[in-house]
């Protein structure tokens, strides 16, 4: 089939020079971003030698020659801690890389032999891959940009499920007494903001995902700064007397409402916008990592909470097919993968269901992506495999099982349970539930980390650039 002229021109331009790609690794706190990035760098560095990458044609055909780290473009940002991660994984006993506390970047240059030959094709070509890591807590600040203080307060009120409400009960009781038109009392605001932050920390510990503002959980350099002294007013409901947007916005600057709204705007403009502008605006490809099994483990309210958080989040990225012009001036994500992480927590016969469940969880954003004609691949993977699949024979019957070492150091052989293929109905939570232990990484003597389907993910995300 003939390609459109702009595609041909764009291919021609790309073939003559080295290619560059910015990959967004997106995932909430503990979804597996750092493990994925560590494994990605590791697999690419050992491609063609020790890494098992059969599903990546460039590696299978011996054309991928390896990867090296280059100096990153932004010298003010720390380098992604790949080496410390590998040291932890190779420790005795092996440890997982540390949870991420700040932003880091990595630029990787892949060397490969192009599959096609032609007068413009060099013998050896390069692909530069720009990667960056950040604490998952900060990611949920991106959807906050779509709000003003009024709509944000309403959105926060909407999703107070029963268990979640319980974790904020004292704060709620105090805040609901406040009069938005009353004069702001600095000491009271500071105390209530701290109580709100404590509620968010409790909710995080209890397995909830939809938690804003992100810096309340992990303030970084903003620890103790007044910009973090605000909170939503969940009582702002249009049906209530005196709480229409117009009435509230006409209140004087020293009123409670105007003070909180000003701090919200400041947080938006001075904290979230620069984070978005510097790191999230220009991506070519994306992988959304979701700890589906963790949410399944945590019960129905948290599961719904995760689904809502992801729905909001996906609105923060630019998707669409790239034309020659947008490729040069306004990059968009033109292909993405969604992945259920930690697939090594369940037996391989459950991986199909895991993908179906992931698709159900992301049904709404997937519909939008289909509409925008952006190709999406759903898969389950383990960036760093921590278990071995086994079979046990019990009373003459064979059944699948997993062997691994728990985080506490106990060697176990377990069947962690069946994964439902759809969003679980009430009976699932009542009868069966789901329970699995966390596993330690496996000790390894190979340079390359063992994984499940990292090669499929890499192929989908960058394989077309290695032809
Ligand atoms: N079994 C298994 N566990 C994994 C895998 N990837 C991540 N984990 C577990 O999930 C935890 C969190 O993974 P990270 O990669 O640190 O998650 P993150 O998304 O970077 O989290 P933040 O930095 O807190 O935002 C790890 O400490 C492991 O316990 C995997 O492939 N297999
Ligand atoms: Mg991390």
TrEMBL record:
InterPro entries recorded: YcjX-like
Pfam family, one: DUF463
The protein's name in its UniProt record: YcjX family protein
